[in-house]
Amino acid sequence: MKACVFGGSGFLGSHVADDLATRGYDVTIFDMRPSPYLQDRQKMVVGSILDKEAVNEAIKGCDVVYNFAGIADIDQAKHKPIETVEINILGNTIILDACKNHDVNRFVFASSVYVYSDSGSFYRSSKQACELIIENFHETYGLSYTILRYGSLYGPRSDERNWIFRILKQAITEGKITREGDGEELREYIHVEDAARCSVDILSDEFENEYVNLTGYQQLKIKDLMVMIREMLGNRIELEFLPNKSNVHYEITPYSFNPRIAKKLVSGHYLDMGQGLLQCLKDIYKEEYHYKELNGIMVEGDE
Questions:
Q1: How far apart are CA 156 and CA 210, in angstroms?
Q2: Which of 83, 85, 197, 216 has minimal Cβ neighbours within 10 Å of its Cβ?
Q3: Contact of 35 with 10, CB cutoff 8 Å
Q4: CB atoms within 10 A of CB 218
Q5: Does the structure show a pLDDT above 60 at 23?
Q6: Parallel/antiparallel/unpaired status of strands 220-221 and 176-180
Q7: Distance separating alpha carbons of residues 215 and 186, to the nearest angstrom
Q8: CB 84 within 8 A of CB 74
Q9: How many Å apart are CA 39 and CA 24, to the nearest integer?
Q10: What is the CATH number for 120?
Q11: Total of domains in the chain
Q12: What is the pLDDT of residue 245?
């Protein structure tokens, strides 16, 4: 079996590519930048999803195609509407057309719970448009699909575009966490490795031509998450709440717009959030201060 993962060098896409390879797929990773995580059963193609010829060549012979490529940062999308429409909508349509041309068995699209919301600006709009176009390809050409609406992700391989990564890094390097708003906003956080595993589980027939919500197993207030991080760091950091200048993020729930209803996939096991945060803290600490872990103890890298 062969799979192609567009955006496979990134945070979530790289984990999905790994899970596919572990399950025996030969995986082509297509991205603008080379993946630093390549492993056995994976090959790299560097290119743009706007390049029709390159996209068609990458998809040729594939059974399954995933699309994680595009502008995924809500604030970035707000300030770059033309690029967001071009990359997210046109790019996804080019991939869909290639899937149709090469008789792909299943197309899997990375959407977001923001499609339910009045928040999310151009990012939300681009995801809504993509979902409708995917349905059109199914109705017109018979292309099978699964649309995954992800919640708030965290975990290894994240970067400054990920809010949890940013606040963990700020806590370690500045001794404080700042947040716009009062922290009462609710989120369902899911570890990226749990999300990746579920993103491959959905290749079963049960989820063909379905929408699936992939979020955490419990709701958590942002301020409670911040307190948890402070306690994990020995109560040595300051929590600072600033006036909310942005209206692109939802507060309590994303559910104000009602597109096609999605199933919620509940995994049999999730990584405990405290454990997941602790691993993220260790990774950031090692990166920032060049420490390594030896028998569970952080030591200087040259020890």
A1: 28
A2: 83
A3: no
A4: 9
A5: yes
A6: unpaired
A7: 12
A8: no
A9: 12
A10: 3.40.50.720
A11: 1
A12: 66
